[in-house]
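G., before I forget:
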Amino acid sequence: MAASSERSPPPFPDSEEPELLEDSDEGADAFTGTSISEMDSPSPDSTRPPKDIFNEPPEDIFSDPLSNINSEPQKKVDTKIPSPSSDEAVDLFSEPLDDDSEVMSSPEVQNPMPDLLNEPVEAPKSDVLGEPPVHKNAARQQDFFEDPPKGSNNSSSSVKKAVSAELFGDDEDEEDLFKETPKVVTKKPQPSGPPVDVFTEVKSDVKVKPQVKDDPTDLFTEEALTAPAQKPPASSSSSSRTNGVHSEEQDLFSEATVELSLDSPLNDRKKKDAVKPSLSAPAASVASSSSKAPSKTLEELEEEESEDKFDLNISVTNPEKVGDGMNAYMAYKVSTQTSLTMFRSKTFTVRRRFSDFLGLYEKLSEKHSQNGYIVPPPPEKSILGMTKVKVGKEDPSSAEFVERRRAALERYLQRVVSHPSLLQDPDVREFLEKEELPRAVSTQALSGAGFLKMLNKATDAVSKMTIKMNEQDVWFDEKIQDVENEEQHMRKLHVMVESLVNHRKELSGNTAVFAKSVAMLGSSEDNTALSRALSQLAEVEDRIEQLHQEQASNDFFTFSELLADYIRLLGAVKGCFDQRMKAWQRWQDAENMLQKKREAEAKLLWANKPDKLQQAKDEIAEWEAKVTQYEREFERISATVRKEVIRFDKEKARDFKRQIVKYLESLLNSQQQLIKYWEAFLPEAKAIA
Amino acid sequence: MEVSSAEAALSVSASSIRITDVTQDGDVLTFAIASQKLNSSAGVCVFRIYEDFDWLQQSLFSQENLPGLQGIIFPPLPSKALPSQSNTQTKALKQLGFLALGQDWQSYCKALEFYLQQVAAHPTLCKCKALDSFLINSESPGKQRGRKGIFNRLSQAVEEMRKESHKDVDNFFQNERNKNTNLAALSKVATEKLLDVVMTEQKLALACGHFATSLHLCVNQDDAAAVAFSKVCLKLSDVIEAVNRNFEKVASNDLSTLGLGLDLESRYQEAEKVWECVLMIACKLIELETVKKGTEKAKASKREVMEAFQKAVEKEFNLISSVAKQEIERFHSSRVNVLKNFLIGWCELQLNTAKEFAELYSQHLEACRNMYSE
């Protein structure tokens, strides 16, 4: 119980845990042997193949009252506050699943936990996830399993630790580990190969395999890979045996899924869903939904992507009110035109509602923003605007609102697909192609003002953290400052443009009134020529009013909306920096922890307590691994953010250029119209006798 | 014919009258009025303040020995500008309308200039000595005021009579009066609306200016991407600057031509109103006399005198009427002419501006496209 509270590592609030875990998975690629296998190994074995590890430790566990064993591990946990490996293992499962799965695969894993370790954080989530009854049953059923696993986890973890400690201790250069990890990665597909039936069942999983081979950096895919493998527990367990220590990692996952599979076939399906997101998380994972399509390597994809980048045309059209009253919503037609082979056809059209767009963003940002990608934010939810649409019928302002939103959604989608990595995301494809989308829920939190507030909070946090973080990278230092300044400027510009647009509208209104009064003047004028000229003038003024109106909307759509988009985008950029900062923080915390462990070890040495020494060494090894892993992660995320920001800058310049050209064209056009009008009017004026 | 006689009386040419400069000293605006002598190429320059203009106007109103004075439509003098209050712009705008706009009282000067030209070009008024001395004497003439306000009072009195919708004896005048009321109101509204338009254009120009300036703040030379973006910003700033100038120009075009023209028109309509009032007083007088005649018919002793008086009055009335009819012809043709000139001038200016900026925009567009391909 006490452990549970301490369990969640202090530096990271709960919300961050998912990243931590996922990251750890990712990072693990380098030394899967250390982080994952080490942590994971215990659990898988414990669940299904209780022979190897179970045999010994479980006995202890069972024979001893649970409390004893548990208490012991717990102590360990206590000492290791941030995350003892065993806990980590738990987290690993619970969290990836957890966040992947709005689907409730996680609860199964987590519910059991509370029994042993009490994970209050996750438990509530499971409620949210929604199928509590099922889970509870499952959880109860699993209690049998769970209890032992727990114990086994702890016990086996110690064993494992010993192993890993040796590993580290003997050759601290992780070369071995490294060598082994790739093996693990490559091997995995092979073991999973045998149970082909299983894979074919889960289509999405199949494609992942090749990927893993291609880029071993993708830990996620690995994870994903294993996930399918887990369904046939037998196969996975067998593979784990063949692979030895490292393959246990698989088991780990398999365990998770095994637990899932215990639940029901229903869950199976959900689990697939759950797996999918985790799949897509890896950068630019091909994951082409059609399993038959030959999967490409990353490089190929990138090449192809850059080639046909502009061969993807998305338009959002036909906003249409669906339903009545407060339940009414706007549906938009999303048409795609492309020659990209990753899509099933060249042109296709789907209907989407606004919350679907938000849902897409939510999915994307969940998966990608923590990796340092800039996920383009969607337009904000506007309760006022939408209410107007719902209530008012033929209000021009609501028509304007709808058009504005339509345009914003179009730009949003275009930004998403123009991002090389996001384009590859299965969710994006699904959004563009699939006829029916599951209804996006709880988009409220991420939309509108709430979203902005969140961003602001994030930025505040960043600025606070910046003080702590002594930035070694000058580039980032400057960039962060730049982005900050830029946002200020953009906001200012936005205000300016807004006032410009308002003045323009005012001008058009005034011109209309003037035209009217000129017309009146003309009609009561005695002199026929003058009267005629005046009414002509009134007409001219009327047209000019139209012109002003058009120009106002041009101003608005070219600049005001552009700036608003970029203000939102800059928020996303800041979010990236924030992610990087978090990675750094994690790394530093791990470093500190390692330091502490070393000190503790020294103390133990000094106090001459050999019994605890081994444990301390294990911990040190574990933390060393973590430090390297986190550092790597930090470097990777830094690289990604850097690439992203550079790309963002380029896009920005191009975007603005394009808008200026567009704007100038509209200006030129209206000037030419003006010339026409005046030229037509001049003879009239001259004709006044 | 009229013109030649007018110029015989006035030693300077009407069309050469210009207000070349204006200086502000506290509350007092001093105008430099330059004009050209008819017979020589020598120019005359005098300095006048608003009170001098006022004196001139009063002198014109109160010329004694001029028959048919009451039938004349006097060119309207713009109301007095109060420079110290003009910083509260809304007030000034309310008071002066268009004339408060423009830099350094330029439009106000234009209006005064136009007033002088109109007076000088008027066939009857140009003979007035006061005008001559106003334009030529370097000494300030405006000492003997005092008759000021008479007309105002008169017009007020008659305004009330108008309200009773007194029917005019002559249908011609009746129609004219109705039309005038209508036009006066409409032209006033039109002027106000145009003023709104111009104000908005100026605001827009200002907003563009701000926008352009803040775009400059986005400039950043750190790296290639930033430089590219900065270039874009600067370009946009140029463009917006151009839009800004466009608006400024359009606004000043509006102001200097149609604005002034409409303003003049509406003030002329007001002047016509006053003139009608004066006419009506004349009519009233006649009526009064007839009534008197009727009541005093019995007194034969005075009949002779009365008839003589009545005849004199009738004669005067006829004279006034004929002057008035002439005047109204003149007024209409000159009004139409003035408006036409303003309209043409305005249209041409707008056309030129539009062409100029179309050219400029297309240059910018070209530049932008090139930049894009870089």
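Strands of chain B lie at 18-25, 28-36, 43-49. The longest strand of chain B covers residues 28-36.

More on Monday.
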